Amino acid sequence: MALALQLGRRGQGRTWPNPSVGCVLVNEGRIVGRGWTKPGGRPHAETEALAQAGRAARGATAYVTLEPCAHHGKTPPCSQALINAGVAKVVAAIEDSDARVSGQGFAMLREAGIEVETGLLADQAAYDLQGFFLKTEQGRPFLTLKLANSLDGRIATSTGESQWITGPDARRMVHAMRARHDAVMVGGGTARADDPSLTVRGIGTSHQPIRVVVSRRLDLPLMSTLARTANEVPVWIAHGHDADPMLVESWKGIGATLLPCDSDGGHLSVVSVLKALGAQGLTRVFCEGGGALAASLLAADMVDELITFEAGLAIGAEGYPAIGAMGLNHLAQAPRLKLMSHQRVGADLMAVWRR
Q1: Binding-site sequence positions for substrate
Q2: Tens digits of per-residue pLDDT, 73-125?
Q3: What is the rounded distance in angstroms from the CA atom of residue 128 to the CA atom of residue 298?
Q4: Structural domains of the chain in order of their starting residue, each with its CATH number
Q5: What is the rounded CA–CA span in Å between residue 56 and residue 52?
Q6: Coil vs helix vs strand at 92
Q7: pTM to 2 decimals?
Q8: Which residues are catalytic?
Q9: Annotated binding site for NADP(+)
């Protein structure tokens, strides 16, 4: 099952709106087939593993990270494929919460005389597949917030200079993190100040996540890097219902996808933004700030995982804070997260926090 989980992670960022699943077939103590969900969500992991195993699948045990599907979509159900292949046993980490499956896949297998075991490494599978479950159950994707800041929590000097606070090793790791998410998201202020490309570079992959900008007024430069490359790598812009219609049409005209969202107290509601992204099928979003967007996400309890890179320099109080104003008067109001891990990355310190 640990191998199946590793295989499933290979598809992260590429399989939305479907989950990224891994499957391993074992017959008489020997691995005879392995697979993971392919880009776009098809073929499924079980289909890939069965194709590799061929006749060796008969009598085998299938280790799969998620309950095999039971419904007819673009392809026949994986539960039926396992039955047809003559698999003797299915060990699944976790049940699928999708109403089209939700126990029905297990029922199909048991009715066909196949032994079913569940719960092996379930916690790890639940974490890996949390984005899919959140989209299915709450209509929003899993949200990772990444902050790269100085020792005193600053992301730029008072003049806006921010390149580079962290070192090359940390930046390379961030590109790998981008590649494992469906989308990379920033606020409008960051898009204006940094003119980012938000692409994955320097790690040997051609895959590019969706690029999302959150800008209520849609006041983004039409000659920016994002605008000039909107037909090459998708750009989605979450904006308010009061955005200038001419700007809406201009961005549509250069190839961007526009997502109107509700406002909350003069700012875009981050809950509405994430719901809009979930409605488009996204399961995993990697947010890289800036400070105002980070504060809004934390205040709304929408941050599932926080990854911080801390560099060994101090910028001072006049610099831009990594997290903007949250209007808190008491510590009890502050969102608290649990430290999961920390490690040195080049000259910087990376920490992973979760809700």
Answers
A1: 162, 178, 198, 201, 288
A2: 666 789 999 999 999 999 999 998 877 777 889 999 999 999 999 999 999 99
A3: 21
A4: 1-130 (3.40.140.10), 139-354 (3.40.430.10)
A5: 9
A6: strand
A7: 0.93
A8: 46
A9: 148, 164, 190, 194, 290-296
